[in-house]
Structure formats: C-alpha cells, structure tokens
Amino acid sequence: MNGLWLIAQREIRTRVRTKSFLISLAISAILVAALASLPKVLGGDHAYDVGVVGAAPAPVAQLAYERYPDEAAARKAVIDGDLDAALINGDRVLANGELDQRLGLILESVHRDAQIKAAGVTITPLRVESVGVDARYQGVRTGIATLIVMVLFFLLIYSAMYVAMGVVEEKGSRIVEILLTSMRPWQLLGGKIVGLGALGLINLAVVVVAGLAASSATGFAADLPPGMGGIVVGTVVWFVLGYAFFSALAAAFGSLVSRQEELNSVLTPMTALMMLTYVTAYFATVEPTGTVARVLSFVPPFSSMVMPVRTAAADVPLGEILIAGVLMAAAVVAVLMGAARVYRRAVLRTGARVKLGEVVR
Amino acid sequence: MLEIDGLRKRYGDKTALDGVGFTVRPGEMFGFVGANGAGKTTTMRIVMGVLDADSGQVRLDGRPVTYDDRRAFGYMPEERGLYQKMKVAEQIEYFGRLHGLAPAAARSAAAALLERLGLTERRDDAVEALSLGNQQRVQLAVALVHEPTVLILDEPFSGLDPLAVDALAEVLKDRAAAGVPVIFSSHQLDLVERLCDSVGIISAGRMVAHGPVGELREREGRGVLRVVVKNAAPGWADGLPGELTREGDRDVLLCEEGDDQAILRTAIEAGKVEHFGRRQPTLTEIFREAVA
C-alpha cells in the first residue's frame, strides 16, 4: 500500500505544479459558473419595472418598484421605455400604449388586495395541491442534468487520458522496468489511478463550488430544487465509479503501446465507449423517464452517467440507484482486474504495439 | 552469494537462454560479456524479476530470491529510464522512497550521491536539461540510492567519457568493497579486464566460459608459445611445429601445440635462447576464441 501512495503522491504533486492543470481548473470553473448563471441572465422570467408615485403598494415577486417624485417624471420614464408602467397614488396606471396583459392582471390584483385589506377583510390565499407529477422544478432540473452530463464527460475523458499518457510515458521511457523492481504492477497501476483520480475529484469539487457560488450570486440558488445536496453527492460517487472504470480501460490500452503518437488509435475502443455513454446520457436529459434512460441507468458503464442524469432530472427510487451502483461497482472490479492483467503482461514489452489477444489469454 | 542456475527462456520458437548459470560472490565484480543478442539483458532482467524464466532459479545466499530481496537490489537497465521533467534530487529521493527508505534517509542518501557524482549543482534542474552523460550519472544514483545488497547494471559504461567511466568505476569498486555482489555487462572488454574479478562469456544463450580472469586465460587460451633464438643455424626448427620468422639475427618461433620441453631443448642446442614463454591472451582474444 505504501508504494501505491508514493506513486499517487508523485502523480498529484507533478500535475498540480504544472501551469496547464491550474489553467484548465480555472477554465472549467469559469465555464460552469457562466453556465450556472445563464438562466438568470437570459431568463424571460424577469420582474416588471413599475414606477411608483405616492404610497407604495404591497411587494410582489413579479414587480420591481421604483420611486418617482412626481407624475411628470414617471410619465417621461414610461415614454422612454425605462418603465413597463407607472402607478400613480395607488389608483391610476400609466402605460406606453396598451398595457401588458399579464402586468395588468398583476396590478389589478395588487390594487384589489390593497382595497380589501383597507376594508378590514383578511384574505387567505388559495392553496395549490399537485395531483400529478411535481413539475415545478422541471426546467431547472433538466438544466442541472445537462450540466452534469457535460462536466462528467469532460472530467472522465480528461482524467482517463492522463492515466493513459502516464502509462505510456513510463513504458516508453522504460522507467517502468526500474519501478517494477521495487513494486508490484498493481501498486504502480493503482497509484496512478488513485493519484489522477484525486486530481479529477479536486477538479469536480472546484466545478461544483463554482456552479453553486455562481447560482447563489445571481439569485438563481433560490430556484434550485430541494435535494441538491443529494444530487451533488451522487454525482461525485458516480464520477468515482465511472473514472475507475474508464481509467482502468485507458491504462490497459495504453500499456499496449510505447509511444504517445500511437495512443489515440489504441484508445479508440475506450473513447468510443465513452462517447456512446455521453450520447445516451445526453439523450436521458431530454427524456429522463423514458424506457431507454431507465434501462441504461442500470447497465455499466452507461449507468455512470445516465443514472446521475436521471436522478437530477427526475425522481428515482433509492433502491434503483443502489442496484445500479452495485452493478457498476462490480463492473469496476472486473475491469480493474482485467486491466491489471493486461498491464502486467504488456507494460514491459516495448517496441511494436502489443496485440490485446496476446496478453489476455 | 548470488547464484544463477540453469536459466532457460524461449520467445516463441526462438531460444533466448539455454541453461545460463554462474555464481557471484559477495564483494565480487562480475563482468558479463557477449555479442549483441547473446542473452545478457534477458539474464539480468530475470535476475531482477522483471522477466520470468521458463525454468531455472536465481538464489541469494542459498535461498530462491524473493520479491522483498529484489526490492533491495540496485538495477540499471540497458534502456535508461528517468522522469524527464522531474528534478534531479527529487527523482533520486523518490526512487529511494520506493525502495523503502524513510523520507529523511532518502534525502540524505540522494544528497550524498549527488556530491559523489559531482551533480550537486544540478540538483534542482529537470533531468531533461542534463547532458546524456549526466543523465547516466543520475541513472546510476537511482540504482544506488538505497544501498543495494546486489547491483545489476546493464551496459553502465556505454556512452560515457573516460572521466565519467573512472568515476563510475570507483563507485562500483566501493560497493563491491562493501561486500556487494556486482554484475555488469559491457562491450568494452579492456574495461572489464581491468575492473572485474570474474568474467562470464555468453554466446547464443549459453555460458561458454566463466571464472576468474586469470583462470580463464590459462584454461581458455593456454597461450601461444613464443621462442626467440639468437644466432641459430638455419633450418634448426625444421622438425618443430609452429611458424618461424626471422627478424635480423633472431629467429622467432610461435607455436600453439607440441611438447614445449622438447622445443626448449632443441632451441638451446640451436643458439642463444633470449625468450621462452607463453603469451597471455587478452580478454578480447579469449572472447573471440570462446564465441567463435
């Protein structure tokens, strides 16, 4: 275990010191922050600007009041387009041409409420009970699911690529021959996967923090659905599982070649599987309750991205999540064992590309 | 004592090793020579456990070598390998840690080796910034940092300038003097002859000769008998084997066989014998003879 930690430590220390790591960290944080603030920036759900002269009515979420000293000033602001409407002394509305229908209804109801209240009658608002699916947060949830798909895909492919590149670096430079005289192949492989995985987690943490910070800064956080904590934790767990799966594949395929130039072609099966996972997960954001999404959320490695998307976009029973998690974990163990076998046999065979068939027997 | 016994290794239908065996005693410097592809690297890799033999055994002090034994070995592979972007001192320390040294011990061992190899000023440079000769020194430091109990070096001298060769030779002699069995392969036979207590010659996967250099000379070459006779009458050597050449008033007879005592008697009768003796073959000659 000690050897494994030393390898992991070196991976972390070497990567953290590089400029490219810090830059990519900053870029991903900025990107996610921008995406998280997008709905508020572009959102059509903004409040109406209403100028007020005289007594201000009761505050309403959809209306942003702005005080004006007299009617003339308010009138000018309406004509200039600075205001959607102006309310004069609580009983007259100035509009530029026709009053927006929805704004009119809101103002009418505010006006009515004020009069009823003044008459001493207490109003109890209507209680709304949903008898169908709770769709209040559907838009936001779909947005979060889409964000998860993108973040997971980029982090997975990026971390797995680093594992493969590290394996080829050590094989190509023959350091592996010295390393393997002081440790077992599984320690070397495990250390690399753990070290680079820790870096991936750091990256994920930065992205999550940036996303949440941006959404609370823009006031979007108030619109986040309940259970965000669970979604975040779930995403982290699924990232760990998906990363273990794909990085083990990357290491196994990477150990077949001795030069970085050959890496892309030898990794094709892995990248293809990853792309397929990405596409199915993307599809699941569109139709999170469809049969395809439901079935694939149990099938490793698709589950590593489809399940977090499903849980973010719709309600999934905990039991289903656990079953999918156990299946994925089993697949991870199988892939890790297979990868360790391929790696052990291929990593010392430098020179021409090793055929997979020769090492899996 | 490191014993290598009956190693066999096949790659497909090509036999790489066909029963390689030899012994290296503590403190002994063993030179491993052979043509390219003869099996030196394969043997060393098997000793280091990087490769598995099809059959045969490597023993340390009478027991089969284990993984833990090997962690204490020092190894310099033929294909040099270092992390190019890692700093010199950090890299040596790192390998010390991998071999089980505590952080402080690894640091001081690395510093001492850098001093010894004249690399102290380069300690914070990335390996890729060093000349090839200096990279080789770092490679050696990596093999030595944990005070190995056995040293296996594949072509450690190749590509080094004469000064670096001397520095490396000193370090190896030091380790041997401390009781460590040292095996190194080389194509520079004069160097092997100068440094080694014993030599092993491998050809096509078989050991064709091995033992102390002096013994090998007697056993393998026996040497050519050289007789120099002054003022001898022409035709004195007509009945003798070998080849006669005349240099001024001296006759030089070189022969590889025949009864040397009889030849001596004939020579004394023929004239004044100025030289009579066997010429010691060089390692190069022994090598040529052995692999021919």
Characterize the structure shown.
The complex is a heterodimer of chains A (361) and B (292). Chain A has two domains: 15-40 and 134-360, no CATH class; 48-118, no CATH class. Chain A contains 14 helices and four strands. Chain A has helices spanning 2-16, 19-42, 71-80, 101-118, 138-172, 175-182, 185-217, 228-254, 263-266, 268-286, 291-296, 303-313, 318-346, 356-360, and strands at residues 48-53, 63-67, 85-88, 92-94. Chain A has a four-stranded mixed β-sheet, with helices on one face. Chain B contains ten helices and 14 strands. In chain B, strands 6-7-8-3-9-10 form a six-stranded mixed β-sheet, with helices on both faces. With 292 residues, chain B is of the alpha/beta class. Chain A binds chain B through residues 2-3, 6, 10, 14, 169-170, 173-184, 348, 350, and chain B through 45, 48-51, 67, 70-71, 73, 75, 77, 79-86, 94-95, 97-100, 142-143.
Radius of gyration of chain A: 28 Å
> How many E-type strands of chain B?
14
Number of helices in the DSSP assignment of chain B? 10
Shape of chain B: elongated
Number of helices of chain A: 14
Keywords:
heterodimer, A: 361 residues, mainly alpha, 2 domains, four-stranded mixed β-sheet, 5% strand, elongated, B: 292 residues, alpha/beta, Rossmann fold, six-stranded mixed β-sheet, four-stranded antiparallel β-sheet, 10 helices
How would the blueprint of this fold be written?
The complex is a heterodimer of chains A (361) and B (292).
Chain A: H1 2-16, H2 19-42, E1 48-53, E2 63-67, H3 71-80, E3 85-88, E4 92-94, H4 101-118, H5 138-172, H6 175-182, H7 185-217, H8 228-254, H9 263-266, H10 268-286, H11 291-296, H12 303-313, H13 318-346, H14 356-360
Parallel strand pairs in A: 1-2, 1-3
Antiparallel strand pairs in A: 3-4
Helix pairs in contact in A: 1-7, 2-7, 5-7, 5-8, 5-10, 5-12, 7-8, 8-12, 8-13, 10-12, 12-13
Chain B: E1 2-11, E2 14-24, E3 29-34, H1 40-48, E4 55-60, E5 63-64, H2 67-71, E6 73-76, H3 88-98, H4 103-116, H5 132-144, E7 150-153, H6 162-177, E8 182-185, H7 189-195, E9 198-203, E10 206-212, H8 213-221, E11 224-230, E12 243-247, E13 250-255, H9 260-270, E14 272-279, H10 283-291
Parallel strand pairs in B: 3-8, 3-9, 6-7, 7-8
Antiparallel strand pairs in B: 1-2, 1-4, 4-5, 9-10, 11-13, 11-14, 12-13
Helix pairs in contact in B: 3-4, 3-5, 8-10
